[in-house]
Write a structure and sequence with these properties.
Layout (H helix, E strand, L loop, with lengths): L9 E10 L2 E9 L4 E5 L2 E3 L6 H13 L1 E15 L5 E14 L9 E8 H6 L9 H9 L19
Parallel strand pairs: 1-6
Antiparallel strand pairs: 1-2, 1-4, 2-3, 2-7, 5-6
């Protein structure tokens, strides 16, 4: 049985953004890892926010890129070394535009477009064990329509 301190899980989103065979990644500070790690644009759901909105917001806040969500890659449940459990919905997206003057989150050191091979070469520095498998699912074509994510109110998907 899971200790009460580990539950309920933190609800998060992650976004795989691909352009010409390269993936939008952030290099960010992670206290648990003790340094810089690579991650997809990702973060927590905020109160009153839907999963799709969170994915768009996190991508913009962490990378300065506006994106168009194109599908759902999957849902993951993982427990971090600190005992926190994360319930993560991962999305596929295409870049729309780099937003001039966008303010990037303070913990982001750099924004990169990395090839799959570069990501694999840096696999020891990935923030989470979910990062690479999510990209691999995307590469295998495991994308589901955005309306796979049911919202309890009518919503348009763009």
């Amino acid at each position: 049985m899971t200790p009460a301190r580990d539950w309920p899980p933190h609800v998060t989103v992650a976004v795989v953004v691909e352009r010409d065979g390269h993936y939008l990644m952030v290099e960010e500070r992670d206290e648990l890892a003790g340094g810089l790690v690579f991650n997809q644009p990702a973060g927590h759901l905020e109160p009153g926010e839907g999963l799709l909105q969170a994915a768009l917001r996190e991508t913009l806040e962490e990378t300065g890129w506006s994106v168009q969500l194109t599908g759902v890659i999957g849902v993951s449940l993982a427990t971090a070394p600190n005992g926190i459990t994360y319930y993560r919905t991962s999305f596929a997206a295409q870049p729309v535009t780099e937003v001039e003057g966008a303010i990037i989150d303070a913990d982001i050191e750099r924004v990169h477009w990395l090839s799959y091979e570069e990501i694999v070469a840096n696999s020891a520095r990935l923030r989470s064990p979910l990062v690479l498998p999510t990209i691999e699912q995307y590469r295998k074509g495991h994308h589901y329509p955005l309306d796979f994510v049911y919202i309890d109110e009518p919503q348009r998907f763009q």
